[in-house]
Every structure is written in C-alpha cells, then in structure tokens.
Amino acid sequence: MDIENKTIWITGASSGIGMELCKQLAERGARIVLSARNQERLMEIAETLPGGRKQHWVVPLDLAEADKLITLVEAQLAEIGPVDILINNGGISQRSLFVDTDLAVYRKLMDVNYLGTVAMTKALLPAMIERQQGMVVSISSVAGKIGSKLRTGYSGSKYAVVGFMDCLRAETAHQGIQCLTVCPGSIKTNIAVNALNGSGQAQNKDDESIINGMPVEKCVQDIISAIIKGRDEIIVGKGISALAPTIKRFFPGLFNRISAGMEYR
C-alpha cells in the first residue's frame, strides 16, 4: 500500500515505536491521527511533523477504556474523514512471576493490549470494508509467539492479538482489506521501564536485552516496508529475540529448555 496522502491512525503515538511511526510516515506524506493518553505530548509531537497541526490530528484516548473507544473514535470521523490505515500500537508490558502477580494486572494487560486493539478495529474497519480498501496493522510481540519467564500476562495478551489478526485476515481477505501483524523483539524503547510489576506499578528499570536491542528507527523502517509490500506478518528484531520463534517452531524441546534455564533477575 502506498503511504503518500494516506490517513493513518496510530495508537500509542506519544513514545517509542508509535512516535517514530508518526515521524517516518509523516515524512512520506501521510496524514497522521495521533492517539494516546497524554494530549499535551501528542500536540508537541504533531507540531514537529511536516505540515504541523494543520495536516495532522490529535485524538487523546485510553485503550484501557475499550467500552468508550468505539463511540469516541466514530465521533472524530466526521472531521478526519476516511482512515486508510489503522496501526494498533499502544500497549503495556509486564515483568513479574505468575505467583506474585495480582489478577488485576492480567485484566489491565488484556484490556489495553487486546481489547483496546479489538475496539479500535471495530470502530474503523466497517468503513474500510464499505470502501473495499484499507489496512489494519497490529503491533503484537515476539512474546505473542513464544513464552518466557516473568511475562505470563504480557505474553498472553500478545498471543491474543496474533490470534485475533489471523482470524480477521481470513474474514476480510476478499473485502479489499490487508491485515499485518508485527512481532517486535527487543527494541530500544521504554517498554521495560514502564512494564508492570506484580502489583501493577511500573518497574522503573530497563532490561539488558532492551538496552542492547534494535534501534527504534530501524524497527519502524521494517514496519513501513512491510506495510508498503502488503505483508501478512513480520518479526522485527535482532539476535535471539528475532530467532526465538523459529527455534521454537523447529526445535521446541530445545527452546523450552533454554527458556526455563534463562535468568531474568
């Protein structure tokens, strides 16, 4: 799909992969709808994009409030017009052992990472189908392909996103809709710093794998390339974080032994 002159709605646009997507897509001539909770930060980012606030829109929202998203999004469409590409990027991670993690943390992870994705897609997909064109991109994770310690909630929510997108792709294959699932490995963002601990608070520390991960600029370049090429699914990353799904697929016993033996603390 071409990027120029397309309207692209991006959640989680205030930092990390989402913010970099806004920058690179706007540089390619796209009109961006920036969404996240922090309206002030979104407005600052929008001002830095080519065309500034005159060409792009800021729509603050909270993915944890899935029940409100459909009405909120639909109310903006009269001003924004048709949305060509939805990028479900917003999300949160987790770093805690299952036995130490409150049930409320699992609920929040599913609300934000999974139900937020479903609600945004529910709001924007019907108009795409009516026009017989459009694209839904959902940022899952390598954790949506393989499991590891300290991520039972995060991995479960990202597995759900992968399954949702597989089903959506099958349902819309003959309606002019493209569905791309992106599974990043270790990318240099604040995802680990903001990851929830067992009580639902940010752990406020980085992971070594993230510190040594792929630069976010390169990650976004790969995502945009996949959008243009109309890919169905990609894994983005370097080193073991990118190879892990392949190792698990072809050598599941080996992968399980490696995963069980790795220490994260």
From TrEMBL:
Lineage of the species this protein comes from: Bacteria, Pseudomonadati, Pseudomonadota, Gammaproteobacteria, Cellvibrionales
Species, as recorded: Zhongshania antarctica
GO annotations of cellular component type: membrane
Annotated family: Belongs to the short-chain dehydrogenases/reductases (SDR) family.
Sorted UniProt keywords: Oxidoreductase
NCBIfam families: PRK06181.1
GO molecular function: oxidoreductase activity
Protein name according to UniProt: Short-subunit dehydrogenase
InterPro entries named in the record: NAD(P)-bd_dom_sf, Sc_DH/Rdtase_CS, SDR_fam
PROSITE patterns: ADH_SHORT (PS00061)
Cited SUPFAM superfamilies: NAD(P)-binding Rossmann-fold domains (SSF51735)
PANTHER family: DEHYDROGENASE/REDUCTASE SDR FAMILY MEMBER 7B (PTHR44196), DEHYDROGENASE_REDUCTASE SDR FAMILY MEMBER 7B (PTHR44196:SF1)
